[in-house]
Prior knowledge:
Blueprint: H1 3-29, H2 53-65, H3 69-73, H4 79-89, H5 102-127, E1 132-145, E2 150-161, E3 166-170, E4 174-177, E5 180-183
Antiparallel strand pairs: 1-2, 2-3, 2-4, 4-5
Amino acid sequence: MSQRAMRRGAFVVLLAAFLVINAVQTKATKTEPMAPQAKQHPQLEFTNASSSIEDLVDRFLRAVEAGNQQAVDSLRVTEDEYRKIILPGSVEPGEPPQNFSDEASQYFWGVLNGKSLYHRASMMHGYGGKKFKLKKIGYQKGIRKWEGYTAYEKLLLTLETEDGEEVVLPTGSIAEVGGRYKFVSFIPQG
């Protein structure tokens, strides 16, 4: 037998062995189709969140009163929380989470964050350093249940100044995850 024939025979044997091993491994790893399961959403939680809307609003008003922009910003979702909880969970109850590329979720965070910082600065300019007593909490767009969280949309705070004047402070929306509350943004309209 020639060397060429021996190499061809060895190749055929190796190819056959590969196909047999591959077929055995594939059969061993194949499973029967699974029955449909309830959609799973990661159980993520907010950090530095409040246990109630009233507590969150109180912390917010104290930070505004102190003129402390950093304290105000700490009451809002972080980039990580927005990209991992809010964006994916903004679907109707029972639907699977939304999937976004890193670029898309970074873009959405950038837009939200930029507008929120702008509105926070404007709010601090008009209300910072002033003392208020909370009279009422309202939601211009109501309360909406999403798959990943509950949204309290377009917060309207009715406040009383030290002079007894009533003012309404519109601000952004609040999200609740697992009984914990944070602002999503400080954007009052839209």
